[in-house]
Design a protein that fits this description.
The chain is built from no helices and 8 strands. By secondary structure, the chain is mainly β. The protein has a single domain, classed as Immunoglobulins (Immunoglobulin-like, Sandwich). The radius of gyration is 13 Å and the shape is globular.
Length: about 100
């Protein structure tokens, strides 16, 4: 399992999502995973990675979109290259704000 946590203040009606190159993150498709809002504008998400390979890696990005995202929703991806998760599966991995 990998846990993502970011502190990000957003406008009402917006939410933070994660998408990536594996099925658990939507395969870069129309169904990214929405993180859950917590106190003090922390957003969290736990992802169960279904692999037993030791050299497993995947790419991902965070993005901001409508809370009830749909195919027509504008998606604002974090700037820069894709993030890469590599090697052994980790129980917790924490990230800082995307802006």
């Amino acid at each position: 399992m990998v846990q993502y946590e970011l502190q990000q203040s957003l406008k009402f009606g917006k939410a933070l999502y994660i998408t990536g190159s594996i099925q658990e993150l939507g395969n870069w498709g129309a169904n990214p995973r929405r993180l859950t809002w917590q106190k003090q504008d922390y957003w969290t998400c736990e992802v169960n990675i279904s692999t037993k390979r030791r050299d497993f890696s995947f790419e991902y990005k965070f993005m901001i979109s409508d809370y009830d995202i749909n195919i027509n929703s504008h998606r604002e991806y974090e700037p820069g290259p894709n993030r890469i998760f590599r090697k052994k599966l980790q129980k917790y991995k924490t990230f800082k704000s995307i802006k």
